Amino acid sequence: MRRRDVLLFVLGLLIGGFTILRGIGPHDEGLMLQAGERIAAGQWPYRDFWTNYEPGQGVVLAGLSTVFGPSLLAWRIVALLLTALTGVLAYRLVRRERHEGIALLAWLAAVTALAWPTGPGPNPPALALGLGAVLLARRSPLGAGALAGAAVWFRPEIGVACAIGVWLSCGAAARWRAMGAGLVVAVAGLLPFAIAAGGAMWDQTIGFLLDQQGLQRLPLLPAYGGGADPNRLLEWAFPVLLLAATAVWVVWWVVRRPPLAAWALAPLALFGLGYLLGRTDEFHSVPLSLALAVLLGVAAAREWPGPWRWVLVLALAVIAVHGVERRVGQFLHPPALAAVPGGVGDGVKTDPADATALAGLIPRVRALTPGGESVFVVPPRTDRVTVGDPLLYVLLRRPNPTRYDVMQPGVVTTAAAQRSMIADLERARTPVVVRWLDPRTAPEDNAGGRLRGATLLDRYLGRTYAPTARYGPYAVYTRR
């Protein structure tokens, strides 16, 4: 790496790192860490537990758990390193157009977009591998294809999008070799899991995308209640601003018709657009923000000073300003937090009320399961769900007796899934159920929130378990 790259990498660590200990994600963080714990224990995704993610991130988290033990900190360090690295990759992709100032603006937009929100999900490694593939394509098509193939292990859409980017960036003679390398790497990584799971891998990944993902779609612009606060207005309008920035780049492309290499990340932007429209929240804006940072930066750097350059720079600056505003706000206004109890937090902090509730819940549940017996964590109702709290399994250090860590509409609301969970609870004679009664479990304004599923599981839990204690939003039930 050059000296400038090293400096930007260190700055990326600083920009992303000051919030590394802030907050926990009961649903998203829980799903990924619990998948890692299951794989570390010898379970196979799809066959032994339900997941709609590709296996790559679960395997990485299983490795971290094996080396460091269950931890809320280890994955955060890895994600921070990937954030800083991906920012440098975005800078290098734009810097090839020989405009330092625009390349630095693209870096700022990219690194602040990646820095928050963060999570242990598969996007950070997939985006780092994908951008690395596009950057490497001109020098080493085989290596670039291999990186894009490895990205498929984490997010196939990102891997395929960046493989197309490699195709657009390579010379004509090298394209098929690059695609061949990518295909070999992708198949080699996914085939063992497909063989172990049979058709379940397709059903839980592609099937989820086609059948259940739409249940979680949110309005493009939710109801606004931020008054005249410009920061809240920017946050509320950001999905529309991203769409406007995308339109700016598309118009530039139609008018200028640049060479293929100038729009190598257009397939990634297309994926990011679909990802954002699938659920317009802060987590789903990251891939499109990153892809646009590079696309707009490359386009602006290719333009001579004039109206087109300023329009493109303005669109890029909107993404950068949004990211900077969030990070500055988080730096100047740190929330009151308390350490996560239970021995796996490693300094990570949560809301003080939640920390107090967990400090009562964790020893109580461990005392009720002194031999490491299973515990079942469930939202208030299972015929109409939004999210669950699988992170509790990691904090409690107790297994889930069922194959379902995910609590989402269309997955656990079916009669077949609930029969499976009831059979597993009976087989394990699970002594404790924890109901997570957090406001985040309330129905959303979407198809999932209006869905009415099976009530078999709720009726079974009501017959079989009795309430014994309450710690904040956590209600403890024991077998009658």
Q: How is the topology of this model organized?
A:
Elements: H1 3-17, H2 28-40, H3 55-68, H4 74-95, H5 100-115, H6 123-136, H7 141-152, H8 156-169, H9 175-197, H10 200-211, H11 230-256, H12 266-278, H13 286-302, H14 307-332, E1 338-339, E2 349-350, H15 352-368, E3 375-378, H16 391-396, H17 415-428, E4 432-436, H18 447-450, H19 456-464, E5 465-471, E6 474-479
Parallel strand pairs: 3-4
Antiparallel strand pairs: 1-2, 4-6, 5-6
Helix pairs in contact: 1-4, 1-5, 2-3, 4-5, 4-6, 4-13, 5-13, 5-14, 6-7, 6-8, 7-8, 7-9, 8-9, 8-12, 11-13, 11-14, 12-13, 13-14
Give a structural overview.
There is one protein chain. The chain is mostly helical and 480 residues long. The chain has a domain at 351-479. It contains 19 helices and six strands. The protein has helices at 3-17, 28-40, 55-68, 74-95, 100-115, 123-136, 141-152, 156-169, 175-197, 200-211, 230-256, 266-278, 286-302, 307-332, 352-368, 391-396, 415-428, 447-450, 456-464; strands spanning 338-339, 349-350, 375-378, 432-436, 465-471, 474-479. A four-stranded mixed sheet has the order 3-4-6-5. Strands 1-2 form a two-stranded antiparallel ribbon. Helix 1 packs parallel to helix 5, helix 6 packs antiparallel against helix 7 (141-152) and helix 11 packs across helix 13. The model has no long low-confidence stretch (mean pLDDT 95).
Q: Strand percentage, roughly?
A: 5-15%
- The order of strands across the largest sheet is 3-4-6-5
Per DSSP, the total helix count is 19
Secondary structure: helix percent = 55-70%
What is the number of beta strands?
Answer: 6
Q: What ranges have pLDDT less than 50 throughout 5 or more consecutive residues?
A: none
Give the N-to-C terminal Cα separation: 63 Å
Rg, Cα atoms, Å: 23 Å
What string, H for helix and E for strand, traces the elements in order? HHHHHHHHHHHHHHEEHEHHEHHEE
Major sheet: 4 strands, mixed
User: What is the global morphology?
Assistant: globular
> Averaged pLDDT, please?
95
The secondary-structure class comes to mainly alpha
